[in-house]
Design goal:
CATH architecture of one domain: 3-Layer(aba) Sandwich
Largest sheet: 9 strands, mixed
Helix content: 10-25%
Order of helices and strands: HEHEEEHEHEEEHEHEEEEEE
CATH topology of one domain: Glutaredoxin
Oligomer: single chain
Radius of gyration: 19 Å
Number of strands: 15
CATH class of one domain: Alpha Beta
Strand order of the largest sheet: 4-3-1-2-6-5-7-8-9
Shape: globular
Structural class: alpha+beta
């Protein structure tokens, strides 16, 4: 690349062949706050909210390790109806819970802290979040907004644009919550297929970054099983055991019938040579890769 060429981290990641499996950040709880104005580079942290409310929400979110995302509908006008907020929760039982509300004043957002302790509602359709946070990273906008547009046209009630979800170099990134499933490396066509299949209970390995309730090596193990045996539902495979020796992991993955019973998946974790991993961060960093080295069927 010459000094006059613009750097795009997602293009560079594709040229390098950066592995995508095992790159989903941990998360069981998401707080969504609709904000139709310009998003600060650091998202919710940069909003000019009443300090007491902001501190209350930040503390409550931190206590449950919730990710706070600003959201908006694709192409909607700023004055169109009340602003919404939501608390989305994935439980260890596999249950998905949601609680929604509206806000017009900063003080109304104090309700979000209370919602973090409420049970939430079962049975609501999932939320599809598309990272299009251009002020955080150029690729998130360049690649994310076309995906947000096409998904919003197909599922207008499910899809929201959102602020940074992690992994800029894997843009376009889509998160299905509270399912806790990260997809990356998407474009307009592949995003429609991925979401359509997800909603039909068929998660494919091709664009899967991982499940957010699993550690990265476990994510890579499940993705490898999906790649070998084909798409499956969110709970068709369960991580039943994990052991580690240095940089090597052994992960037991079991399946619900009629799929093959169980597998021991060997994963090696290592760091890559330093690269520029984001558009706006010129510093060189190494990435942690989780490579599946073997898979043995048990029973």
């Amino acid at each position: 690349m010459t000094g006059t060429e613009r750097f795009f981290c997602a293009d560079a990641a594709r040229d390098r062949g950066d592995p995508i499996a095992g790159t989903a950040p941990y998360g069981l709880v998401w707080i969504l706050i609709e904000y139709r104005g310009g998003w600060p580079a650091n998202g919710f942290d940069g909003l000019d909210l009443q300090p007491g409310v902001k501190a209350l929400l930040f503390t409550a979110a931190q206590a449950v390790r919730a990710r706070v995302l600003l959201v908006r509908r694709y192409g909607r006008r700023r004055d169109e109806g009340p602003h919404r907020w939501a608390v989305l929760r994935y439980e260890s039982s596999g249950a998905y819970r949601q609680q929604w509300g509206t806000w017009s004043r900063d003080e109304d957002l104090a309700e979000v802290a209370g919602a973090l302790g409420a049970p939430g509602e079962l049975g609501l359709p999932p939320v599809v979040l598309v990272c299009s946070h251009g002020r955080h990273d150029t690729c998130c906008s360049v690649r994310g907004r076309p995906v947000a547009r096409v998904l919003s046209e197909r599922w207008p009630d499910l899809v929201w644009e959102c602020t940074h979800v992690g992994g800029d170099r894997f843009a376009a990134n889509v998160v299905v919550a509270p399912d806790g499933v990260y997809y990356g490396g998407l474009d307009a066509g592949s995003s429609v297929v991925a979401v359509e299949q997800h909603l039909a209970g068929r998660i494919h390995a091709e664009h899967l970054r991982g499940y957010t309730d699993l550690a990265p090596p476990q994510q890579a193990a499940v993705a490898a099983v999906l790649a070998r045996f084909g798409p499956a539902g969110r709970h068709d495979y369960l991580v039943a055991g994990t052991s580690r020796l240095g940089t090597h992991w052994r992960i037991r993955v079991i399946a619900h019938p009629p799929r093959p019973a169980a597998f021991d998946v060997e994963v090696r974790s290592y760091r890559t040579p330093p690269h520029q991993l984001t558009c706006h961060g010129p510093a060189m960093s190494s990435a942690l890769v989780h490579e599946v080295t073997s898979m043995i069927r048990i029973g």
